[in-house]
TrEMBL record:
Protein source organism: Dimorphilus gyrociliatus
Pfam families assigned: Acetyltransf_18
InterPro entries xref list: Acyl/Acetyltrans_Enzymes, Acyl_CoA_acyltransferase, GNAT_dom, YitH/HolE_GNAT
Boundaries of every N-acetyltransferase domain copy: 23-166, 163-315
GO molecular function: acyltransferase activity, transferring groups other than amino-acyl groups
UniProt name for this protein: DgyrCDS14103
């Protein structure tokens, strides 16, 4: 049964589906962002608390962001939202420990969220073997690469020839979008433009850098802080070459205190970049298996050196 009239913990949150045991799946709201980020911080220790909030502010309502609620208590989360025409991305699947084994997560993810995706392509990143096996059970296929989180120093000394760097301002934005179209999973997707407008300019404590060669953009990247501002996530980091990507990474580290570190989310298939990061003392924290449902979106691109966000837009 679908309804909009059942009371929920969050005022004005539309209930998408109600079950006979009193369990409701409703839309995720801005007020839920902190709750969900706290859940994930308890599992992954370092989470950028801005990511989900920016996504919720960008995507229109009814875009596939869900919370599970029982007796007025939020107990589960997940989203499956369109990141291109015919392509969805799924993440933030979580069930509070004391509410597991009661079907709250599976009903949210495998019924409500799956119905939202329909026959479109769905991309997910499975962070452990049990999740990979679970996804395979439902017909997902493994991509020929993984998303690798690496951690390393924010201060990197590199030499780049004939490359200049500038802090990104709104005067660069249209040109940044033109460049982004060559790197993101689908060119000219309207939500991507709206997302980047907030992502690049509205996140407190972030910094974004664009690289030029002969007056032409050849890459750009952003860092944003985690809680405590000693660890910073890098993403997106898009560039024409390993050298340019490393130059942008070096620029993003300038001005940060000694001891600050970066997290990147790189494609394992980019062997030369992985090798270069290892040479710069970057170490693997964990890997997530990229998986697809309903087809292959052909999302691997060698000019993606760190995805935008493992949590909300892993491209």
């Amino acid at each position: 049964m679908t309804t909009e009239s059942i009371p929920t913990k969050i005022e004005n949150a539309k209930v998408i589906k109600s079950f006979d045991d009193g369990y409701n799946v409703r839309e995720m709201t801005l007020e839920d962002a902190e709750t969900v980020q706290n859940w994930f911080a308890s599992s992954y220790s370092n989470v950028c608390r801005h990511d989900l909030l920016v996504a919720l502010k960008t995507f229109p309502r009814n875009s596939g962001f869900y919370m599970g609620e029982i007796d007025g208590v939020t107990v589960a989360s997940a989203f499956r939202t369109a990141v291109g025409t015919g392509i969805f991305f799924g993440s933030y699947y979580y069930v509070k420990k004391e509410y597991r084994k009661r079907g709250f997560g599976t009903r949210l993810r495998d019924q409500v969220a799956r119905d939202h995706v329909g026959n479109n392509i769905l991309v997910v990143d499975a962070t452990d073997d049990s999740k990979t096996a679970n996804e395979a059970k439902f017909g997902y296929i493994k991509a020929p690469f993984q998303i690798v989180r690496l951690s390393g120093p924010s201060r990197i000394e590199v030499k780049t020839e004939n490359i200049t760097f500038e802090t990104i301002t709104k005067k660069h934005f249209d040109d940044i979008i033109d460049y982004d179209n060559n790197c993101y999973i689908q060119a000219n997707y309207p939500i991507r433009r709206a997302f980047l407008l907030k992502w690049l300019f509205d996140i407190e404590g972030s910094r974004s850098v664009v690289a030029f060669a002969k007056g032409k953009i050849v890459g750009y990247g952003q860092r944003r802080p985690t809680e405590g501002c000693v660890m910073h996530f890098i993403g997106p980091l898009y560039a024409d070459s390993d050298e340019i990507a490393m130059g942008i990474l070096s620029e993003l580290g300038k001005g940060l205190p000694e001891g600050n570190k970066f997290y990147l989310h790189a494609y394992s298939a980019n062997k030369s970049w992985m090798k270069l990061l290892n040479e710069k003392s970057y170490e693997t924290v964990f890997s997530a298996q990229r998986m697809y449902l309903n087809g292959n979106p052909k999302d691997y691109k060698p000019n993606v050196y760190s995805t935008t966000s493992l949590g909300v837009l892993s491209f």
